[in-house]
Design a protein that fits this description.
Elements (H helix, E strand, L loop, with lengths): L10 H4 L10 E2 L10 H16 L8 H16 L7 E4 L2 H11 L7 E5 L8 H10 L2 E5 L8 H9 L6 E7 L11 H10 L3 E5 L11 H4 L3 E5 L11 E5 L37 H15 L1 H19 L6 E2 L12 E4 L5 H12 L1 E2 L1 E3 L6 E4 L7 H11 L2
Parallel strand pairs: 1-11, 3-4, 3-5, 5-6, 6-7
Antiparallel strand pairs: 2-8, 7-8, 9-10, 10-13, 12-13
Helix pairs in contact: 2-9, 3-9, 10-12
This protein binds pyridoxal-5'-phosphate.
The site of pyridoxal-5'-phosphate has 13 residues, from helix 4.
Amino acid sequence: MSLSRRSLLTAAAVRPLVALQKDLVYMNAANIAPCGKEALAEYLKQLNDFQQNPAFQNREVYKTLSESVRARLAKLLGAAPEEIALTRNSSESNNLIAQGLRLQAGDEILITAHNHPSNTQSWQLRARQSGATVVTAEVPVFAKSPDELWATLAKKVTPKTRVIAVSHFTNTTGLLYPIAAIADLAHKQNAWCHVDGAQSFGWMNLDLPKLKIDSFSGSFHKWPMGPLESGMLFVRAARLDELTPAILSVDYWSDKPTGARKFETLGQRDDPKLRGLEKTIEFLETTGMAQIEARALALSTRLRNGVAGVPGAKLKGSGEVAVSGPVVKVDFPGQNLATIYDRLWTKHRIAIAKTDAGDAAGLRFSPHIYNTESEIDQVLRALKG
Ligand SMILES: Cc1ncc(COP(=O)(O)O)c(C=O)c1O
């Protein structure tokens, strides 16, 4: 079953499409979103077929399946199939970029203090290997405008900057970076702009060429509601030749993988999962990314507005629409976060994430399209005691 564009307008239509337990209030899509029931069923069916008959003849189907999945994903993101690699997750994709670029002593890699470790530590290793330096821009957690975010990066750019690597939307406090402007900044220096899209892929209506970036990572098991351990990497066609694959193996489908395919020659893969990806992409296509984005933003806005009325709660971020999205971070200064986090789980079965300390400290709520308005209200009541 998939949704027509109109039926998405009610959360009640989406909820039955995922297998979440009825009494579970799950608001942690920024970590893992439940896989759509249909995608999971199709994946398991295909896996059974594979295991019952692993003969080469029965695996012919995957050659065309991987190409049709690539083409549909490319279309969804406004990209060309040649620019898409099917990876295992965003961490792998971030590392492929960090390891793949040619860097040398004296080069600078500009990141932010709120990059995910896979987009920080991978660059630190690369710097150690190449003699380059990692430069870290601070994150103005309460930024009111995209310009403010841009400026923190702009002031760290030097003639030595060779890479700017940032999160599109941060997992830490939910800040939406102005990517096209950051890509312009990078390109003025002839630098590479890598965007970690783990927190934007799947809820945002994306057109990657419009972002002007050189590479972009995503995970299907987060916002797109796809199967576990499935990711993607986009590399702009014009810059593909500048990247060397970090993992080499027998080319599974052909002797000469072309375009971004050269980043997915990892030996034997879980090919039946492609069927799950196909269904996941079909769901995103038929539902429409604009609808998904609107719904995710409506739910998070309801939550953010409600939190403003919770005694002792302090929202992270300015809440300004241009720099916000469906990750809502709430701090309780002077209170024990772990106690509140545990109470939400044990008393109310509300599943979220938390950061204990630092400028991202707080409880993280990441509602998605399977959540209902009444679940948002339930969370707000639970936060009050
Ligand atoms: C911004 C960001 N990048 C990368 C990752 C890593 O994602 P994965 O574990 O799917 O590789 C995460 C995970 O939460 C993330 O938030």
